[in-house]
Sequence to fold (227 residues):
Amino acid sequence: MQVKIVEDPFDPWQEIQQFQLAANEMSGKFGATSIFVGTMRDFNEGDDVKGMTLEHYSGMTEMQLGKIITEAMQKWRVMDVLVVHRVGDLFPNDPIVLVAVWSSHRGDAFDVSRYIMEALKSKAPFWKKEILQSESVRWVGKNTDGYEKQ
Amino acid sequence: MSIKVRYFASLKESLGRSEDELEFVEVISVIEVWKQANKEVELPANILAAVNMEYVGLDYLVNQGDEVAFFPPVTGG
Fold:
């Protein structure tokens, strides 16, 4: 398991490749890799967004993410998990979060990816502050259920 | 006993500070910590609390050297 909180932009695909190359014990054993990448949009709640600052509670963030991943690895059969999350100043198209899960079979990889993302959204102490095109600034009040409204 | 109190995000901005250092004689609960540190300000309804980086309820008792944190709902990911 690896959790990385990064202040600079990251390339999720490079992170996955590096992690997988270094994880020798998984070689030949994993049959499924589930990848979730969360990316910054240029709109939110009907407004144009030009930037965002992500604050976090250093230490608690890593501890909570570690607990979430440990719970998932006890509940499902997975080989390894990588979580990378940005903090600091972000712009549209910047990756915010990567959750990558390796397992023998697809069911465990899909389920753990979803479990980690939903738990991260409700427990990991990150806070988003948006800068709108109008130059006004606002804190995001709460996370949504993750579906676009019909 | 001494306790460090930390505030984050919009709560930190509205209070105008990121932390307090408090001294107590007796063991007290998290909500009492808030009241001692913020005498004029009621704890907003949606605020979450943590002690030593674990989520706790407002009746949780704090000890010497604990780090208490108050913050709004989290919005990462």
